[in-house]
Amino acid sequence: MSEAYSPVPELNLLREFDDRIGPVYYSDGFELREYGADAGLHTWSEHPDFLSRLVPFAQANGSGSDYALWRCDGRTDLAALPVVLVGDEGHLYVIARDLRELFRLLALDSAPFADVGFLAAEDVEDHTAGHHEYLTWLDRNFGLGPPEDVSALWAARKEHDDRFRAWASRFVELLDP
What we know:
It is a single chain. With 177 residues, the protein is an alpha+beta fold. The chain has one domain. The chain has 6 helices and 5 strands; from the N terminus they run αβαββββαααα. A 5-stranded antiparallel β-sheet has the order 1-2-3-4-5. A hairpin with a 5-residue loop joins strand 4 (83-86) and strand 5 (92-96). It is globular, with a radius of gyration of 15 Å. The model has no long low-confidence stretch (mean pLDDT 89).
């Protein structure tokens, strides 16, 4: 039996990093949780198709929002699935086109907000304790860093979000992101 955190190699690398640096944040509000554990999705909808196609894996902020992978199709590379924000204030939308894009957004070290996406890196005054170690990890493992143009990245995920919102609206009433 495997002791891997998840079936997603990229998330397993992040879990190893998370375990290594200990109980410190490396991106504001972000915290890995048990892969696939209940994140309150049933409070949105009890429909089996809705519940089976969203796979929670992390806390997005300290007030109850979570990140989940959206199994939008049959692709085998789970890291290539869109990442959804399951918001504690009624928001449900695609936050990143895939895990690596989410990792880049986490490098901004700001919690997601429904109305603005993420704060730009230069707008964050005090970084979390593990932020610089996270940037090193992100570069070493994926050759990535924080996005230079957050607005462009935010706009690029819109096609995925439109598709997600059309699918999710069959099960839940959606607020504007």
